């Protein structure tokens, strides 16, 4: 058994369409946790079983456009989530969790948040106000949890944090994921919860897209998927990367490896 903890996060964009790819990903990397976003399945998540893993979801995790699902590896007959705290914590405003945007679990040595952050689509009435409210409540939740244990946030956070995360040759400021207020909200989350972008910490200058949209064949995209880790976890941080060569979807998985300090 490895002395490291490995977490994979992936905007799978339909588990039904890419379940075979998910199993290939698990076989190749043998992660301890797999966090999925945009699962796009309301009725039959229990049929997507992976040997050696326990899938965690409730009715609140379903979503027509989003939906989140977490797998935890089973070791010696038990999974890695604390059994006495197995129900996920959520944003306390029910309307902000209605589409399955978030799971937060106590993993013993850290708290793991699997998130699909709502997209601030200016063409959809109310979506910007929704996102601003979500950002505020999510930040409050994470700040509170970070007082209990180190925190790891992963998922499609729908933000191009800096121009280094923009991998297109040309990009337009103040479009969704690039806007000044989104970046300011993200900065506030990092500073108030004392979090670090793990990939950027290890790769200060590298540009590596995690989302391609319809342009994967051209390798054009932006980094909108992140692992944010409590600063106290940096001594255990081994690797954080984007698996750009894996899969066929619009998004590439991301991976985090931490040393188990016992």
Quick synopsis:
The protein is an alpha+beta fold. The protein has four helices and eleven strands; from the N terminus they run βαβββββαβαβαβββ.
Report on this model:
The strands form two sheets. A six-stranded mixed sheet has the order 3-4-2-1-11-10. A five-stranded mixed sheet has the order 5-6-7-9-8. The protein has helices at residues 15-29, 127-146, 180-192, 198-202; strands spanning 4-11, 33-37, 53-56, 68-73, 102-106, 111-116, 151-156, 195-197, 225-230, 237-242, 254-259. The protein is built from four helices and eleven strands; from the N terminus they run E-H-E-E-E-E-E-H-E-H-E-H-E-E-E. The longest helix is centred in the middle third of the chain and has 20 residues, at 127-146. Strand 6, helix 2 (127-146) and strand 7 (151-156) form a beta-alpha-beta unit. With 262 residues, the protein is of the alpha+beta class. The radius of gyration is 17 Å and the shape is globular. The two termini are 14 Å apart.
